[in-house]
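Researcher: Sequence of Cytochrome P450 follows. Predict its structure.
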Amino acid sequence: IHMLKLSFNTSTSSFPVGFLYRPIWFCLQNPLSFSFPGSPQLSEKYGPLYTLQLGPRRIVVLCGYKAIKEALVDLGNKFRDRGQQASFDWIFQGHGVAFSNGEKPIHLRRFSITTLRNFGVGKRSIEERILEEAHFLLEALRGTKGAPFDPTYFLSRSVSNVISSIAFGSRFDYEDQEFLSLLTAVNEIFRFSSSAQGQLLDIFFEIVQRIPGSQQMAFKRFCELKEFVAKKAKAHQETLDPNSPRDFIDCFLVKMQQEENNPDSFFSMEELVATTLNIFFGGTETVSTTLRYGFLMLLKYPEVEEKIHKEIDHVIGVNRTPSMEDRLQMPYTEAVIHEMQRFGDILPLALPRRVTQDVQLRGYTIPKGTEVFPMLGTAMRDPKHFARPAEFDPQHFLDEKEQFKRNEAFIPFSTGKRYCFGEHLARAELFLFLTSILQHFCFNSAMLPEDIDLSPMLVGFGTIPQAYEFSVIPR
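Model: Prediction complete. Tokens:
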């Protein structure tokens, strides 16, 4: 294969039209150049709805908040199935809450949301879990003694331990080698799926999966994660007390027992492993990457960090831990967190969709089974909703009285029938981890703010910031 062809169908009125070519070797050597399905140039030329032929795959791309809302919210039932995400489909094989289709994800999703709520998500008890983990994180940061460090695993260990306590019933020690190996696997998979090679795998899966390359490392890492969860599930099964479930896995096992005589049940060991892995992976990487990118933004704009310090001192002080109730009195901090998510755009298209039946959208007929890319990043950089979409500016979420204001185009967790149900947990983690750290520390970088580069290192399935080091200085 020496040429990647992306063509827009011009022979039928069912799809918008256009045409584009790019060589594969150029994309491999210039990863960012490959992240173009929802690029402003294409949407400006062809509008908010257009078709791409990605190798053998025909994709409809949605750009801008209005088009995404019309599809995922107004016509949500017709856009609820998942499209192909080869890096993940290879391991999940249609199982689990995130990558399955039909009736299965409806039942698994309902169960997962209820179970997470029962373990405190959206309640005061989840705050206690997060703040407990924040205590361990603060101790780890103090241990750096002002020396520069890469924040990647400091953050991923803490964030992952919150979801681990829910999924597996306990947290991990920060030096646990198995835990560190799991986090390395999650990090490497996220990086691969965001690389040019990962995107080529998605487009030409039948070919690329069979040849040597970094995709083989990703497959190996996925197997390691799946084997770990399967081992945990088996251990839970041997010690299960149906009257006293300890965590998400126990609750799933109880549900399996309740439905063991139902031939149509969607609850099996295969679904348990896949769904738990979905939750563990999603609950680890996205929040930790958002914080890591957000800290880089604060290093770039120290005046923003200073304003957060002042708000923390005024509302929380130094003698008590933060709480979610503090958000109501901290509009600037809340605005900064939202802007970190908007500007960082960690999951530019979330997960692909597939229409469940023929659907009419903006005068076009999208045939049943067509894959759809709702480019969430184009909504969060929609100039109709954000005054300076290409700039990091917390004022996007503040009104004329400097009070926090919501924006309907802010959809980092997607929207509609299959929005991310970990949203409440993620919001709590972002606020409590950020305020806990800035309550005790100031950030310092050897680089001058004007020399800090906020452009991402990779953009694909996810957005990954540049690697950097910084130091934390006790306040």
